[in-house]
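Q: What would this complex look like in 3D?
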Amino acid sequence: MPTAKFSEIRDIELFEGISEDSFVALMKAAYIQNFPPNVEIITEGETSDFLHVVLTGSVELFANWSNNETTMATVWPVSSFIIAATIRSEPYLMSARTQEKSRIVMVPSADVKDVFEKDAEFAKNVVTELASCYRASIKNAKNLKLRTSKERLANYLLKTQKKSGAGQSFPLKYEKRRLASYLGMTPENLSRAFSALREHGVNVDGQIVHMENPGKLIEFAKPTHLIDE
Amino acid sequence: MPTAKFSEIRDIELFEGISEDSFVALMKAAYIQNFPPNVEIITEGETSDFLHVVLTGSVELFANWSNNETTMATVWPVSSFIIAATIRSEPYLMSARTQEKSRIVMVPSADVKDVFEKDAEFAKNVVTELASCYRASIKNAKNLKLRTSKERLANYLLKTQKKSGAGQSFPLKYEKRRLASYLGMTPENLSRAFSALREHGVNVDGQIVHMENPGKLIEFAKPTHLIDE
DNA sequence: CGGAACGTTGAGTTCGGTCAATGCATGTGG
DNA sequence: CCACATGCATTGACCGAACTCAACGTTCCG
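A: Here is my prediction, written as structure tokens for the whole assembly.
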């Protein structure tokens, strides 16, 4: 079985430093699948048969309860998702759907667990990944419990601006309705929050955000590396 | 160095199946400390010098931002806390204070990381622990984003009742103000939520909860193993 | 061209927080 | 043992944040 077609994922952090044998073992039954936009590829509650790795496109992780839905996270290339369920052989806690046309590698959970048992380097990588996801999730909870929706938006904008190169203008990476759900509010409330942030130097035109005076926004948002990286 | 005095922690899940050498290495510089109630033993933002294990008493994990404080979790014996920070050599994301008089083992982070590198069994245990904490944190986020405060309280009561033996009456394990903070609301709002749950068969007298009709409460709370275990 | 989905705005409501007053329990020092 | 202070829980009145519902304009596709 040629591992050539999996060369793109050889370099992700999760597989860094693992033996060639281990990589081959992981890929031997793995396959790449192309999904159209807006397709549900995982449903919460199902048992985890595969570890997924996004190669291109993007994937939204979301959750449902009693007629409510909320966006939990978005996965961008190249990274894996929902490894905790795989490792613990427990049901997925989140559903996943493609946001756009996406190529996704699916690695059978059994192979992941095998290699996890045999390759100490892989086990260490899994730990690093999990610890990082766990910390991100704690930060998320702090964000939700300690801040108002306006503050969450402000901090999200600062983070996004930084990631896109710290320029005055940058694009939102989400549809606004999804951003609202991710930030834990309704689309209507997001609209109003954007309006309210005008007094702190934020203007939005479609997907483009103009941030006149980051210093002013920072003063309002009070970002901290203990929540916002 | 006698490991006898650490016998209590030899049996926790995190150390299950690890070699005697590894255990000795972990305990060689570890020490047990007695804390009075209400003492802050960890402050968020500090670097993680120790892995902590609660032997007796209980520890509250909490976080602060901009004059707000919120309870994130409570740790009961015998278990460790904040292992993610230790493994990643990053600052604590939460503070910790004793809720009552508590005995706590402190294991130097350097030793934890050494053993983690050398003992594959320990590494696996760390993974299991982290995956479990991560999943708990995801559930927490779903609980916060998908439910109202009344629903969170109702589900908390059902969970607590189950853990205390499924009897009609059981004690709250928290002070009410801490429970409120843990559930993401104010003490005043918790009081009102308790009143509101009377119509679903819940009555509170001090620390004792009487649940006349669990079925009725379940109907309202709609618990699910994807959030509530 | 027409329909669907998205984003925005307004009006009204609900949920949850703030502030203040009170009662109760606990603990401390005289 | 009492007097007092302190802190927690509850209640009421009020306020503010966020949600719901509805209407409307825009954009994007079929």
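A: To summarize the key features: The two ends of chain A are 41 Å apart (CA to CA). The longest strand of chain A covers residues 68-75.
Q: Very helpful, thank you.
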